[in-house]
Amino acid sequence: MTIEARIRELGNRHRNLDETIRRETTHPATDSLRVRELKLQKLRLKEQITSLEALTH
Predict the structure, then answer these.
(1) What pTM was computed for the model?
(2) Number of structural domains, the chain?
(3) Domain that residue 23 falls in
(4) Which of 36, 43, 45, 47 makes an SS bond possible with 14, Cβ 3.0 to 4.6 Å?
């Protein structure tokens, strides 16, 4: 897999997590621990994307 393809894949996962977090936070009985874990996953993906983008420049 090329770096660009990996960046796209990670970007898709990042957007999906963003949508999941949005849905989770709109429920009256929001599980704050789950939201925190999702946000950490999203942050890790963003860090991976940033690192890979740095390799392409």
Answers:
(1) 0.88
(2) 1
(3) 3-56
(4) 45
